[in-house]
Amino acid sequence: MYASIKHVNRIHLRRNMGICRLTSLHMHVHCVCLLALALPSTASPAIGRSDTSKVFEWVELAKDKQKKGMPDSAEYYFKRAGELATILDYDKGKLSFAGNYSVFLYEQVRFDEAMEYAQQALEISQRLQNRTKMAAAYNNIALQHQARGRLKNAAHHLMKALEISSGIQNPTSQNLSDRRKYLNNLSSLFLDLHDLEKGLQYAWQSFEIAQQLRDTVSMGNSLINVMVAEAMSGKLASAIRHGKQYLAIGRAYGDLQMEIKALNNLADVYRMQKLYARALTTFQQALSITPASMPGNEVYTLSGISRVYMEMGNPRKAKEHFVRAFQLAQTELAKPQLVDMYETGADIEEALGDYRQALDLHKKHAALKDSLRDQETEKTIQELEVRYETAQHRKSIAERDLKIVEQAAELSRKDKWLVIYIFSLLILISGLVGIRLLNRQKRRVQAAELEKKLVEAQLAGEEKERARTAKELHDGVASILSAARMQIDTPLSYDNPRAAFQDVGQLLDIAVREVRNISHNLAPEMILQEGFADAIHSFCRRINKPGFQLDCYILGELPNLQQSAQLAIYRAIQECVTNMLKHADATCGIVQLACEKDRLSITVEDNGKGFDAEGIWVKGIGFANLQSRMRFLNGTLDIRSFPGRGTSVFMEIDCSVHKDRQQGIAIEQELATTSLS
């Protein structure tokens, strides 16, 4: 395993290949075999779900014991899981047991038993047509062949695993994680053959998948192979950088196996840099944390220390450590890992002068090396790799063609949807235009109906006003004038003719006042010319009579409104007061106007008998007139009344749309003239 002092470029690194193992250069390379994952239980009705679940529970428990360095406990639970799966005749349980137990046996350097269970896992996965587990089984079989030095068979099965894994459509994270392991194993295989370029190529491919999965531990396991390839190529600074990254990951995740491998590999690179003291210290750190339950690790550390002493010129100290390492290697290392052990032993015996023993070890080294690296094996492996690369290239072309077809179909689909979208948009626009036209026509009809109702209300109001005026003229003015005539016709009945003429004059004054009141009610425009507020006050004063008091309050300054708006507001108040007098049986009432900014609020209240406000709009003509006037004024109307509790009429009007612009301009000009004078 160790060369003589003149072969100082020879490296002694350990790769990671499922378990700790020596390569021809003694570097740890990570090539973890795929663990068969526990599948969800889908047992037949005859099999209890709790029983089938127990199989997977024991497998997971065994894996946990294995990870904690408790091989005896791990094997106990593995066997219990296998026995239960066999009793239940449960293939998925058998598959989980066989795949995971094969890995356990491989790490325990029991390669023949590991091969047996790996083949069982392959048979079951083929029967179940489980391609993921099938690829894992091929990978496990490849590891057993490689451990026995059958590199051609190892390459054949490893390529089968990669072909199956690469053929999985829409791979899951687990599928990608499996593929990463297979590529890492392929990297290890090429490093065994000293093909550094391809070993580094597949290690980086494995690392890229780990990055894609954001799996830090897997990134570390791929980095260790990158480190080996770099060290074998003489890129020592880069190798140390990646080795320290791997060590940090192992310590961060509490993975003792990773930490040991990292320390051994870093120590070997320090040796290559001739930093012997640092190399020995690092090897001793690895040896101090190596448990007996992890076979193979101590071999690497002892052989590494032996190599350091050999290069330091101390063959006796080197042999002391080598003998211990060689004894362990006979039982703990696979066949390919003994190649450099024979060469290192030969160099030590030669340096100590035992040439016969040195010659014997050289012969064993040459024979084993030739059996492992014959031209036919290397040619076969190269052919398998070319076939795999060709298949991958064809797959890439097929995927590209499929992508082109999918893109064309996508474009066609988008064009179709574009046409549908445009057509739908045209329909939507046409519908919106049609709705807009219908709404406009509807508003016109509503406006016409509103105008018609307003005219009808005005006509009804006028007719009602005429009837009321005729009654007032007949009952009031006509009766007064008749009394005056009677006084004129019978003046002799008075002792004093002057007194008779005075009575006639009083009757005529009363008749004049009645005519004035009637004329004000009929034509309030004349009063409005004197002022809107004065007109309201005057109206309220005329209403007062014995037994009824109507108070008027105007808060703030009323706005300058168009005469039509003033007249409509006046009529609305008049309508409310008239209804109050006719129907409320009230003794008092209030008319209140309040203006704040452009909002005019009008309140008409009484203490009358009230009424039920339900249905008032369809029964009362007076209230219909009020509603029509409020629409004309763009105002709101709220009537609240309850039997025995009086009535409140609240009106609110936006004065900004009814302002008298001309009057406002005239007032501003008058104010300006006054200020100038």
From TrEMBL:
Alphabetical keyword list: ATP-binding, Coiled coil, Kinase, Membrane, Nucleotide-binding, Phosphoprotein, TPR repeat, Transferase, Transmembrane, Transmembrane helix, Two-component regulatory system
Pfam families in UniProt: HATPase_c, HisKA_3, TPR_10
Keyword set includes GTP-binding: no
SUPFAM superfamilies: ATPase domain of HSP90 chaperone/DNA topoisomerase II/histidine kinase, TPR-like
Classification via PROSITE patterns: HIS_KIN (PS50109), TPR (PS50005)
CDD domains: HATPase_UhpB-NarQ-NarX-like
Segments crossing the lipid bilayer: 417-438
Catalytic reactions of this protein: ATP + protein L-histidine = ADP + protein N-phospho-L-histidine
Sequence ranges of the TPR repeats: 260-293
EC code: 2.7.13.3
Single GO MF annotation: ATP binding
Name of the featured protein: histidine kinase
